[in-house]
Every structure is written in structure tokens, then in C-alpha cells.
Design goal:
By secondary structure, this protein is of the alpha/beta class. It has a single domain, classed as Vaccinia Virus protein VP39 (Rossmann fold). About 40% of the residues lie in helices and about 20% in strands. The chain binds S-adenosylmethionine. The site of S-adenosylmethionine has 18 residues, from helix 4 and strand 2.
């Protein structure tokens, strides 16, 4: 079920400043070439990620689940010149797609792509990070949260996508829905963070580390 009335969502999209030309081109090519293009986070969430970077004065970020690079390039655009974004993914085809756009952007130099299961990559990283965006396989959401949180600085934000899972969290039946609902409840009760679950697109759960 759509979380937001599609007309309202379209209005919010249209009243939000357009993303950069290169992000628009990336989105257009993704929708033209990929049947799974709906995974791309899009203008509203991209802009929210950029706001979060600006508000936290983020310099070091990590993305878990990069796909064709829309959210990653959105974050990179909001980082300072010496900012750094580590993007994790396992799909070489979409990683090459993303990299081709990073290479065209002046912000692409801030991005390092790690092509390996994200949990393996995270285990090699040292903090502190200012922003983490979790948007990969739902079954590992709790593991991504657990692995990422100790790497975050105080005041840093973990943003978890698809946390309303098309409404399935109201009555979770399948494995993915249960994992997402479990993580939402875990974050709600996690004394290490403050949180807000925003009903934006498919749900964006923000956890700010104390
Ligand atoms: C929803 S898409 C990410 C969308 C992207 N954040 C955006 O907004 O454009 C999920 C991505 O997670 C990746 N993924 C799935 N399992 C993974 C794993 N174990 N480690 C790293 N990435 C994984 C998939 O290959 C896919 O590209």
C-alpha cells in the first residue's frame, strides 16, 4: 500500500528544488535501463540526506546499499571538498553504472566504492562517521545497525530506509517485514540514540547517536 497519497507525494516532490543535472541524468538512465529502478531513493530522500549532511556538518559518511549511485552522489554533493563517503555494494554491474556518474561529477572524488558484502567492509573500517545510510538487504538491517553504531560520532546520524516497508510493518508476516519491524522497535528502545521514524516515501528511520 502507498504510505503517502501519491498526489501529495508528487506535490512534495514538485515543490522541492530539483536535484543537480547529473543526479537527474543518473535517475533518468536508471529508469530507462533497469526494471528495479524503484530502489533509487529519489529527490525527496536525496534532499533529506543532503540536509542531514549539512546540518551535522558531515565529513565522513558510509552508505550500505549503493545501487546506481543516486543516494551516494546526493550525499557526496553535500560534503566539503575533503569529505569522504564509503559506498558498499555487491553488484558489479550497478557499481560500474554508479562509478560512471561519479567520474563525471566534481564530487565523485569523495566517494570510495567497496564491492563486497557490506558487513565485511564495515568490519575493516574505523570511525568516527557522521552519517550512515542503511539501504541494502533487509534481512541484515539489524546487523548493519549493530556494526555501524559503534563507528558513529556523538551527534552522528544513522538513517535507515524502507522502514515502513509499504505498510507491512503493521502486520509483519514475511521475513523482511519482521526484520524491519524488529529493528524499528530496537531503535525505539535503544538508549544510545534519539530517534524519529519519518513517514517519508517508504519510511526513513533516523537514529541520532547520543
Ligand atoms: C535499495 S538498493 C540501494 C539504493 C540506493 N541507496 C539509492 O537510493 O539509489 C539496495 C542495494 O543493496 C545492495 N546489497 C544487497 N545486499 C548487499 C550486501 N550484503 N552488501 C552490500 N550491498 C548489498 C544491492 O546490490 C542494491 O544495489
Amino acid at each position: 500500500m502507498p504510505i503517502i497519497d501519491p498526489a501529495i507525494e508528487a506535490y512534495a516532490h514538485d515543490r522541492t528544488k530539483p536535484e543537480s543535472d547529473i543526479l537527474q541524468a543518473l535517475a533518468k538512465k536508471t529508469y530507462a535501463e533497469r526494471p528495479d529502478a524503484g530502489m533509487l531513493c529519489g529527490r525527496l530522500e536525496g534532499r533529506i540526506l543532503q540536509f542531514l549532511c549539512t546540518l551535522t556538518q558531515a565529513k565522513r559518511c558510509i552508505e550500505i546499499g549503493m545501487f546506481t549511485g543516486y543516494s551516494g552522489l546526493s550525499v557526496a554533493e553535500a560534503l566539503p571538498d575533503d569529505g569522504e563517503l564509503i559506498c558498499c555494494d555487491i553488484n558489479p554491474e550497478t557499481a560500474a553504472f554508479a562509478q560512471s556518474f561519479y567520474d563525471q561529477s566534481p564530487h565523485g572524488k569523495k566517494i570510495t566504492v567497496k564491492l563486497a558484502p557490506a558487513l565485511e567492509t564495515i568490519a575493516t573500517l574505523s570511525g568516527p562517521f557522521d552519517l550512515a545510510f542503511i539501504d541494502a538487504d533487509k534481512i541484515n538491517y539489524q546487523a548493519y545497525y549493530d556494526a555501524t553504531l559503534p563507528l558513529m560520532r556523538s551527534g552522528g546520524i544513522i538513517a535507515v530506509d524502507n522502514t515502513l516497508w509499504h505498510g507491512a510493518v503493521l502486520n509483519p508476516q514475511d521475513e523482511d517485514s519482521k526484520c524491519i519491524d524488529d529493528l524499528n522497535r530496537f531503535i525505539e528502545n535503544d538508549a544510545r540514540v534519539d530517534n524519529v521514524l519519518l513517514p517519508v516515501r517508504d519510511g526513513l528511520h533516523l537514529a541520532m547517536v547520543k
